[in-house]
Amino acid sequence: MKVVKKIPLILLVVLVAMQFYRPEQNFAQGNHTKVFLKQTNPPEDVKTILQESCYDCHSDNTVYPWYNNVAPISYWIADHVQDGKKHLNFSDWENYSPKKAAHKLEETAEMVSEGEMPLKEYTWTHETARLTAEQIEALVEWAEQSKLLYELGPQPE
Question: In terms of DSSP H, where are the helices of the chain?
C-alpha cells in the first residue's frame, strides 16, 4: 500500500481512538458563583446575561452542547473553556484580591464593549449568548460600577 493510501486510514484510526479518550469536563457542584454574585450584586438582567453568555467558559460549570461528544470538537471546546477560566473565573472570585477583582471587572467591561466577548465562535451556536446593544450597555455599566466598589473600599461581603 502506498503512503498516500495509508494516510486516510491512519486519520480514521486516530479519529476513532479520540472518541474513547475525551478531555475532562468542567462540572462544579453547588452554587459555584455564590461569592461572585454576593459581592458584585448584579441586577437580574445582568445575572441572566452572565449565565447565558459568560459562565460556560468563565466558571467551574459548563453546560455542554450535544456535539461536545464528538472528538475533535470536544478537545476544541475543552481548550476554549480552559483558556477562558485562565483569564477570568467567576467561580474562583473569592480568591481574587480587591485589586485583581477590579481589574477583571474593568477587562470585562472593555472586552464586552469592544465586541470581543462573548467569542463569535460561541455565539454561532449559542443564540441566547448574542448580546444586544441594551445588554452590552447594562453589563458594561454594572461592571464599571462594581469595579468602583473594589477600588474605593474594602472588599464587600
Answer: 3-18, 34-40, 44-53, 55-58, 73-87, 98-113, 120-125, 133-152
C-alpha cell at 91: 467561580
Spatial distance between the Cα atoms of 153 and 76, rounded to a whole number of angstroms = 40
* DSSP type of residue 24: P
Residue 157 is assigned to a structural domain of this protein: no
Q: What Å distances lie between residue 34 and 11, 57, 128, CA to CA?
A: 45, 17, 23
Domain span at 131 = 3-152
What does the pLDDT look like over 83-117, one tens digit per residue? 999 999 999 999 999 999 999 999 999 999 999 99
